[in-house]
Write a structure and sequence with these properties.
By secondary structure, this protein is α/β, with parallel strands linked by helices. Helix content is 48%, strand content 15%. It contains nine helices and seven strands. A seven-stranded parallel beta sheet has the order 3-2-1-4-5-6-7, sandwiched between helices. α1 runs parallel beside α2. The longest helix has 29 residues. The model has no long low-confidence stretch (mean pLDDT 94).
């Protein structure tokens, strides 16, 4: 992954949830490449090991934190343990998320609860744990991975859209609580980003998707990683409570 943006994060420590694949993987690589020590948190230990190895092979520093963000106590303990080990936590990226797409009339309680718990409740748990630590240091960057689905909605994704809209509201409120402590809280809201899932859709579907994107291309994970990287940097200290939409203009 090639990034045109570089920032100085040397000496800083970061945690990225959902770092074993997709956007979390890309964000972890970007933070590691720019000097941060990255705690890669996810359930899949094998994929986590691959992420850590890739960061280290590129000259960065990282460690795996095997944890299910749906487990409240384990997640809070993992963040506190990381801070105790490294004596600091400068950056938190809440990226872990799942989908259970279905029209509302056929959506089960379990499908609703699973998405809200993994996407939104885990964000609350991580933010609460990290904010307490960052307040003592009077510095911090919290970036929550939302989605344009949380901004404009999407049929068949009432659970997912609600979780992402909730994340945006959480971030706006929390930003007001923490701004006077040198801590910023922002969201990045990706649009249609290239992934293993989109690759399976085929050329016909992808051509239709591109017609809806003014930039006339599907986003790359590096596009999202660059946005997170900027908001993680000292240069973004006067930006808080905002949602940066990265979608090639699709949301309008």
């Amino acid at each position: 992954m090639q990034l045109s943006l570089s920032v100085d994060l040397k000496g800083q420590s970061a945690i990225v949830t959902g770092a074993s694949q997709g956007l979390g993987h890309a964000v972890a690589l970007a933070l590691g490449a720019n000097g941060a020590h990255v705690g890669c948190l996810a359930r899949n230990a094998e994929n986590l090991a691959a992420t850590v190895s890739e960061i280290e092979q590129a000259g960065g520093s990282a460690e795996a934190i095997a944890c299910d963000v749906a487990d409240r106590q384990a997640t809070a303990a993992a963040i506190e343990g990381f801070h105790a080990k490294h004596k600091r936590l400068d950056i938190l990226v809440n990226n872990a998320g799942i989908t259970r797409d279905k029209l509302l009339r056929g959506m089960s309680d379990e499908e609703w609860d699973a998405v809200i718990t993994t996407n939104l409740t885990s964000c609350f748990i991580c933010c609460r744990a990290a904010a307490s630590l960052m307040r003592r240091a009077k510095y911090g960057r919290i970036i929550n991975m939302a989605s344009i689905s949380g901004v404009i909605g999407n049929p068949g994704q009432t659970n997912y859209s609600a979780s992402k809209a909730g994340m945006i509201g959480l971030s706006r409120s929390l930003s007001k609580e923490l701004a006077n402590r040198g801590i910023t809280v922002n969201c990045v809201a990706p649009g249609f980003i290239a992934s293993e899932m989109t690759a399976k859709l085929g050329d016909v579907v992808m051509d239709e998707v591109r017609k809806r994107i003014p930039a006339n291309r599907v986003g790359d994970p590096a596009d999202v990683a660059a946005a997170v990287l900027f908001l993680s940097s000292p240069a973004a200290g006067y930006i808080t409570g905002q949602t940066l939409i990265v979608d090639g203009g699709m949301a309008g």
